[in-house]
Amino acid sequence: MNRAVEYLKYVLHARNEHGLHSPFLFELYNEVFKSPKQFYCFDELEAKRAALKKDHRIIKVSDFGAGSNYGGGSERAISKIAKQSLKSKKYAQLLFRLAHHLKPKRILELGTSLGLSTCYLALSNSKTEVVSIEACPNIHREAKDIFKHFKIENVKAINATFQDALPELKGRFDIIFIDGHHDGPACLAYLEALKKHLSQEAFVVVDDIRWSQDMFDAWMEMKQDPFFQVSLDVFELGILVLRPQQSRSHHILRY
Known about the structure:
Layout: H1 3-13, H2 23-33, H3 42-52, E1 58-60, E2 75-77, H4 78-85, H5 89-102, E3 106-110, H6 116-123, E4 129-134, H7 137-149, E5 155-159, H8 162-165, E6 173-178, H9 184-194, E7 198-206, H10 213-223, E8 230-233, E9 238-241, E10 249-252
Parallel strand pairs: 3-4, 3-6, 4-5, 6-7, 8-10
Antiparallel strand pairs: 1-2, 7-9, 8-9
Helix pairs in contact: 2-5, 5-6, 9-10
């Protein structure tokens, strides 16, 4: 998949709030996607990102799936993992704004990595429980150290593969962030397994929908799933909304 070509297609089709006739989506766009508001924790989190990119410690990495950002050998520098796997500032802050706006009781993240996106989600509201799953033991430990650094106490960090962890999940979630395994068929399987854990008006955020052709094909299948009423495409992320009272609609949003 040619990323430059795909981005040009996205730009040509993306629309702003004036194409949103639903009051719910109009407010969501202006409060989350368009908002220029900066929050107190952004600078500290971005300082940690910069530090991770300069951390040349070597750790052993277990690679558990196709499309993992940890590929390239069993030993990796923290700096390289940070450069390859952390969500960009732009999209990490979008996750924060979405969680801050929705005020979810529970969030599930598939793919903790070094934990920066987890921190963005957790710091959006200290009363929100964030459950985050990471298969690699050493990366899991690094993430837990970062949670301690920021004194974050509302994250439940699970060290397990997605296949092992998902059957053990209890309860429902208001936001689910699917990251860490960039394989289209696998993501479709995760989504199907997670449907029973979605709250009444849940949001499912799918990372890197244009990572590869099979990821984009999976996204196109997800957005047509009648289980969800709304899909939002912001280039790197695809968002599915479970909102029974909403008319079905698909939107490519300028972000």
